[in-house]
Each structure stands twice: as structure tokens, then as C-alpha cells.
Amino acid sequence: MLNALGLLKERRFLPLFITQFLGAFNDNLFKTGMVLFATYQIFNDATVESNFNALATGLSIIPFFLLSALSGQLADTTDKAKIVRVVKTAEIGIMLFGSAGLMAAKFGHTSIGLGMMLGAVLMLGVHSTFFGPIKYAILPQHLREHEVLGGTGLVEAATYLSILLGTVIAGWISVEGTAILVLSVAIIGWFAGRNVPEAPRQGATLKINYNPFTASWRLISDTMHIPRLFLAICAISFFWTIGAVLIVIFPPLVKNVLTADERVASLTIAIFSVGIAIGSVIINSLLKGRISAKFAPASVIAMAVFLVAFSIEARTWTPAPTGQLYGVIDFITHSQSIVLLLTLVAIATTGGMFVVPLYAFLTTTVTKDQTARTVAANNVVNSGAMTIGAVGVLALSAAGMSNEDMLIMVAGMCLISAWIAQKLHRACD
Fold it and tell me: What global pTM score does this model have?
């Protein structure tokens, strides 16, 4: 991984690295700012807050399910750099619309503002659907074979570090500041995207299928018959189902169980992002550039253990006095906070160690003219799994399950991921 840092000096990698970093930062800044704004300033009910977060998560995922097949086909039959430029241009318009929604809700037009913000989340999902296959599929085209794992690790680490920055900033700036910043970053990202080197089509010309349902089915069936891809995609999908549940329950858990304010919520999510970045670095160092699922089963089992520990720590947490919320200083100096935050870092680190090598499988198992469609097939399956996770939270919340109990359920899902990862390891190593 340390050797891979040299790629940051290369034009064949740096512009893409900056573009995806800024895109992930902006996407997360807007979504986190919106969720924290709704959770702490609009709603005042734990169930409503979870439902809103689940709806936002679902809207961001739907485009992946419907449009990933089309995005993969376009990326494999068109210059990927051109698609980057189109997507980054669209981001400016999306952020303009979303910022207007934030302002509308801020100044009393709550229903209209919430509708516009959720609409922006849906459009950001479309934006990410068309950019997602490219940020991985372009790597084998621009990097040498021995650089792909390191480049993938850098992209993953940068993605989560950008989430870190977006999350922290969202908790500390005003709604007006969020609106201005997301527009500014979108413009900077547009300039970075224009410097991504050309990545023209490789292989035969594709006949594009614009029907989202038949295209998705064909895409998945053409990909999932390869055993290592099938297992890698299943393992990644279970991981992101876990991620979807955690994304939905975390802000309400921080507010209502840990009794802390929105800045603490952003801090804890940011710490989670740091942990995943750390995990990306550790696993690349352990594997020394070799693409392998060797450490995946142990990593996700460890993640399950830490999730159970986090659930226990949340149950025994001493809450703030009635009607009050802990601020950052009070939270950090809380007698139970150090153990809780270290557990959170451990959850994220083991998660990063689990998922990074699996993405490398996607881009190195098939030929370069099929990589975007392979990543797109993964996105379709992942989005379906994440949708199930978000809907599951709604159903379980309605049935009265607490967020602490959902953490135990997620730990059980980690064991299934470990079983799949072990099968992948046996099939490939």
C-alpha cells in the first residue's frame, strides 16, 4: 500500500483519485447534513427519524438497482473519461436543487424542502450509479497488473476518508454553509474530472439494452456463473446489507441511546470511516499486493464480536440528564466513551479488511472490456441487498425491535459473510 502511494504522482491515477474523492465527499456531506438536520431540527421521534433515514437510504439505492446494468454497458462501450465529465456536470445541477431544498426547509417550507432534499438524494443515487463502475473498472486500464490492488486500496481508503471529512463537516457547519459548500465542491470536482485521461472502449462494440429489468437480469446471469465472482459479489452484498442497517440506525442510536447531539453523531460516523480506511491499509500490507480472500473470514468474524460488544456498551451507557444531549467535550470525557469509540474503530477496521480484497476480485477476474459490467452487476446485487436491509429496519422498528438489538442481528449476518468468504478463499487460493 505504501508503494502504491507513488501512483498519486501519476496523471493516469491522480485526477481520477481527486474526482472520486471530491464526489464521495460531496455526496456524504449533503446526505449527512440532510439527515442530521432532519433528525435534530425537524423530527422529534425515534421511529420517525429511523423511517426517514431508511427512506433516504432506499431512495439513494433504487438507481443502482434499476440503472447499474445500463451504466456498466455504457462504461464498457464508451470512453470512461467522457462519462466522468458528463456525470460531474450533472452533479452541479443536483447540488443546486438539493441546496434549494435545504434552504426551503430551513425557512419554514418543511414539506417542500424535505421533498426536494429526498429528490436530490435520488438524483445523487443516479449520479453514483453511473460513476461507480468507472472508478474501479478504469483502474486495470490505466494501471499495471501489480498496481491494481494498491490502486483499489487507495480508492477505498480515499472514499472513506472523504466520508470522514464530509461527515465531520456536516455536523459542524450551518445548513446555509452546507448549501454553499456542496455547490463549491461540485464545481471543483468538475474541473478535476476534465483531467482524467482517456479510457476508450476495449473489445467488441456492445449493443446496449435500455430495458432496466432484462438488462439487469442478463448482466447478473452473465457474471454470476463465474464461481469466484459469484462468491465475491455475494460476500460484498452481505457486507453492504450490514452497512445499510448501520447507516439507518446510527443517527437515532446516537441521539436516543447515547443521548448525544449532531456533532457527536458526525464524530462517531467519522471515526467509523477512519476505521475502514485503516482496514484498507492494513489488508493491503498483509497481502503485499496479492489478491486473496485469505484474511476475509477472520476479519468479518472479528467484526461480529465487536458489534456484540458495541451493543452491550450501548445498553449500559449512562445517558445525559433528561432533556439534555451530550456535546462533543462532554461525550469524549464521559467515563465510558473511550471503550465505546475504540470498539467502533475496531468494527470499521475489520470491515475494511474484509471488503477491499473482494473489490479487487471484481476487476481482475474478467478481461478489461468487461470490468465495468462486472462492477455494475455487483452494484445491482448490492443495491438489492441494501434495499432489503433498509426495508428490514423499517419492519423491525415497527415490530418494536430496538437499535441495540439490531446490532446483535447484524453480528449474526457477519457470520454468513464469513462463511461465503471462506468458500471464496477455498475456490481461489
Answer: 0.69
